Amino acid sequence: xxxxxxxxxxxxxxxxxxxxxxxxxxxxxxxxxxxxxxxxxxxxxxxxxxxxxxxxxxxxxxxxxxxxxxxxxxxxxxxxxxxxxxxxxxxxxxxxxxxxxxxxxxxxxxxxxxxxxxxxxxxxxxxxxxxxxxxxxxxxxxxxxxxxxxxxxxxxxxxxxxxxxxxxxxxxxxxxxxxxxxxxxxxxxxxxxxxxxxxxxxxxxxx
Length: 207
Ligand SMILES: Nc1nc2c(ncn2[C@@H]2O[C@H](COP(=O)(O)OP(=O)(O)OP(=O)(O)O)[C@@H](O)[C@H]2O)c(=O)[nH]1
Ligand SMILES: [Mg+2]
Fold this sequence. Notes:
Largest sheet: 7 strands, mixed
CATH class: Alpha Beta
CATH superfamily: Spore Coat Polysaccharide Biosynthesis Protein SpsA, Chain A
Helix content: 25-40%
Oligomer: single chain
Strand content: 15-25%
Subcellular location: Cytoplasm
Bound molecules: guanosine-5'-triphosphate, magnesium ion
CATH architecture: Alpha-Beta Complex
Order of helices and strands: EHEHEHEHEEHHE
Number of domains: 1
Distance between the termini: 51 Å
Number of helices: 6
Binding site for GTP: 17-19, 80, 112
Strand order of the largest sheet: 3-2-1-4-6-5-7
Enzyme class: transferase
EC number: 2.7.7.77
Function: Transfers a GMP moiety from GTP to Mo-molybdopterin (Mo-MPT) cofactor (Moco or molybdenum cofactor) to form Mo-molybdopterin guanine dinucleotide (Mo-MGD) cofactor.
């Protein structure tokens, strides 16, 4: 009997998108206290680390931004190639890094979704493993809406994302909704996005 070699499981780099200006909040969203303890930054970092083991990086605007957020030097960070270009820049830089690092894809989450659960990320990972060359994105339920910052992008789509970065709109949503991708349904409450001080109350529901 010939022993069949096991295919290595696909390698996924966890990327926490935290390079925004938080201009609507007026204070860094990453440093907001999370209801279950720590900050939005530490909470979302741990959430990602529990899915991507030790392969997690934080996507930031610059080295100064790392200092502003007091991110420990033990946590690897990637910096935008140009400032204030929006999240597509963070996605593009991370995909280039993953490709040169031998990873197969990146699992992205933003720092401002305090109710997202590890289980949601595991659902994305399972869907991606069925078809690792396709983008898989969270789709908010009721009303349906694609959430391009919660998803897994294979390294093969780096050129597609470069075109988004170079476009006038730089909108991942606009580009991805009309291009090939798979979706995983996640409830509106779990995808609750905190952008303004008003979004912080009433208290989040983590059940
Ligand atoms: N790397 C990187 N991440 C970004 C950039 N802009 C936004 N993000 C991240 O993408 C996610 C969604 O961004 P927004 O909701 O627009 O947050 P923001 O840009 O910090 O806030 P506003 O300034 O109010 O728009 C957040 O996790 C941000 O930290 C950017 O230019 N570079
Ligand atoms: Mg923004």
